[in-house]
Design a protein that fits this description.
Layout (H helix, E strand, L loop, with lengths): L2 E3 L3 H6 L1 H13 L4 E2 L9 H5 L3 H15 L4 E4 L2 H10 L8 H6 L3 E3 H9 L11 E4 L3 H6 L15 H6 L6 E2 L15 H4 L1 H18 L3 E4 L2 H13 L5 E4 H5 L7
Parallel strand pairs: 1-2, 1-3, 3-4, 5-6, 5-7, 7-8
Protein name: Lactate utilization protein A
InterPro entries: Cys_rich_dom
Pfam family, one: CCG
Length: 249
């Protein structure tokens, strides 16, 4: 299986350890990973701001670069959802896109649904608070919605449960938005920060030691608030935890 690693812009520029953890994890699991060096932004910031004409060449470029792989794996639910769910009206006449949209996976989705892993040789003796980011939850269906009367599932939690010594923090509102929302955090700063503080308060009452998620954008927002307010919570992307990386001090 030819697997391409897609690294989002903000991870590449600000959190390269997350990209390395994703690569390390996949290689530990026996996956032969390729990194297409020509990759660029997927166009999500432009499309979210209504700038379709600016997003179009990036979408076309993405399909050109990543076509031909058996799978594309990305440590970001929002970027995966952008390609899978929001390229459609831009590339509705692109035959290669029809194939590619079925081959791109968020990291946890790939591990659970494609590799079907059932063990990980990692010790993680911490109480973990799992944040379900909106794109992963609502658009990729990585977990069940708490408001639905349906069987519960949670793919990131399923993976974390494989770790030796892990304990889960029980949140009161387990799938509430963190308030980041990309450009929303800039245009509606006060609302965004209030929502973030609400999520942190829920983790504090639950005794979270390490806060994790599949989207570094959400964690970036929450980590900024945690650092400024000197709260006793560490923040790690789920790829870092699953790859056996140490908790940052």
């Amino acid at each position: 299986m030819r697997v391409a690693l897609f690294v989002p812009c903000y991870i590449d520029q600000l959190y390269p350890r997350v990209a390395m953890a994703t690569l390390d994890l996949l290689e530990q699991l026996g996956v032969d990973v390729e990194f297409p060096a020509a990759q660029t932004c997927c166009g999500q910031p432009m499309l979210n701001s209504g700038c379709d004409t600016d997003a179009l060449p990036l979408a076309e470029r993405f399909v050109e670069i990543f076509s031909g792989y058996d799978a594309i794996v990305c440590p970001s639910g929002s970027c995966v959802s952008m390609v899978k769910n929001h390229y459609d009206h831009l590339l509705h006449e692109n035959a290669n896109y029809d194939t590619l949209r079925t081959q791109i996976f968020e990291l946890c989705e790939f591990l659970v649904d494609v590799l079907k892993i059932d063990s990980l040789p990692v010790k993680f003796p911490y109480k973990v608070g799992l944040h379900s980011s909106c794109h992963g939850l609502r658009e990729l269906r990585l977990a069940s919605d708490s408001e639905l009367n349906a069987p519960e599932f949670n793919k990131p939690k399923q993976l974390l449960a494989l770790l030796d010594g892990v304990e889960f923090a029980e949140l009161k509102r387990k799938d509430e938005c963190c308030g980041f929302g990309g450009t929303f955090a800039v245009s509606e700063e006060a609302v965004s920060c209030t929502m973030g503080r609400d999520r942190i308060a829920d983790h504090l009452q639950a005794g979270t030691q390490v806060l994790t998620a599949g989207d570094m954008s959400c964690l970036m927002h929450l980590a900024g608030l945690i650092k400024r307010e000197k709260q006793p919570i560490r923040v790690m992307h789920i790829a870092e935890i699953l790859a056996g990386y140490e908790v940052p001090q």
